[in-house]
Design a protein that fits this description.
mainly alpha, about 70% helix, flat, 11 helices
């Protein structure tokens, strides 16, 4: 029956991959036996829902298949702990790689293998330890997702619709890159610019530092939403509205960045790409900076247009879905 399959699908999302299939097979058999005992050979949907309600919340059922005993991070928190640990370690490693590339290509420093190893030894275990401490505190005070069965209704199980599933790989990659970008903006905002391989000159963006707090706030909001989506595993109306709000905030920031760069170019009499190229030929340092600012202005403008279109499409889809109800 569909409701049972929806129940099994939800349980499976919170089970370990290596024995998920066997556990679901065993659970499916138990559900079938329980349903036959309670409702006979031809149960109605209400009887199926009643039987599932008796079994309990899918997350709570999934937690019973993890090993019992003493632990720093319990079974209800462990999937979230594993996800956050992977993201945090990848973000720290990415920030280290960016720092090495900056030191080599911009500062002209040679990479010292001992310093690289020391940096990893210091940063990765420290990051892992910080995550463990946070989850130890959560476990100690019994902070965990609400798995209370009292208000749980089998009818609330999500439909078997893969279009509502969250692309976990995409979200993890987005979190890693947002974290790396936040680290760059926070500690290396003066190194945001364009590096010319042809003449070995670096042209820094003089305006980015003014927008670091706004950019970091937008990035932090995106990271928080992606972590929430990874935890939930599915899109909901609330999460779509949250993404829409984030898009609107991004539109405001991109518009501010685009206008600021346009004003800078007007003040330097470089409103066209052709004027920037002419200055580049006449005076490399001045022309290079103007050429770099034109690239940033075009990038922010294009990003603004793309975000506006994506937001408009999302609003249209949400409106049509509401009207179809």
């Amino acid at each position: 029956m569909e409701l049972i399959e929806r129940y099994l699908n939800e349980v499976g999302r919170h089970l370990p991959r290596n024995n998920r299939k066997d556990i679901l097979g065993e659970l499916r058999s138990s559900l079938a036996d329980a349903l036959e005992d309670q409702a006979g050979a031809d149960p109605n949907p209400q009887q199926v829902a009643s039987m599932l309600k008796g079994f309990g919340n899918p997350r709570k059922i999934a937690a019973t298949y993890y090993p019992e005993g003493q632990y720093l991070v319990g079974p209800t928190l462990y999937p979230f702990f594993r996800m956050v640990t992977g993201i945090a370690l990848a973000a720290v490693l990415g920030a280290q790689i960016i720092a090495w590339l900056v030191s080599v290509f911009l500062a002209g420093e040679a990479i010292d293998p001992l310093n690289v190893a020391a940096g990893l030894v210091n940063s990765l275990p420290a990051t892992l330890g910080s995550v463990v401490i946070v989850f130890m505190i959560l476990q100690r005070f019994d902070v965990h997702p609400d798995l209370d069965d009292k208000d749980w209704d089998p009818a609330s199980l999500p439909e078997l619709d893969s279009t509502e599933d969250v692309n976990r790989t995409e979200k993890v990659v987005a979190i890693i890159f947002r974290s790396i970008f936040m680290a760059i903006l926070t500690w290396y905002s003066g190194l945001v610019g364009v590096y010319s391989l042809e003449n070995g000159m670096f042209f820094g963006n003089p305006l980015i530092a003014n927008f670091v707090p706004w950019l970091n706030l937008s990035l932090l909001y995106g990271i928080g939403l992606d972590v929430y989506l990874l935890w939930q595993g599915r899109w909901t109306e609330a999460s779509r509205l949250a993404r829409l709000a984030g898009n609107l905030f991004s539109i405001v920031i991109l518009w501010m960045l685009s206008q600021a760069h346009a004003a800078w170019l007007i003040a330097h009499n470089a409103t066209t790409l052709e004027s920037g190229l002419k200055l580049l030929e006449q005076n490399l340092p001045v022309g290079g900076e103007i050429w770099m600012m034109q690239i940033f202005w075009m990038s922010f403008t294009i990003a603004l247009i793309v975000t506006v279109i994506e937001t408009a499409v999302e609003i249209f889809k949400m409106t049509r879905k509401l009207l179809d109800r």
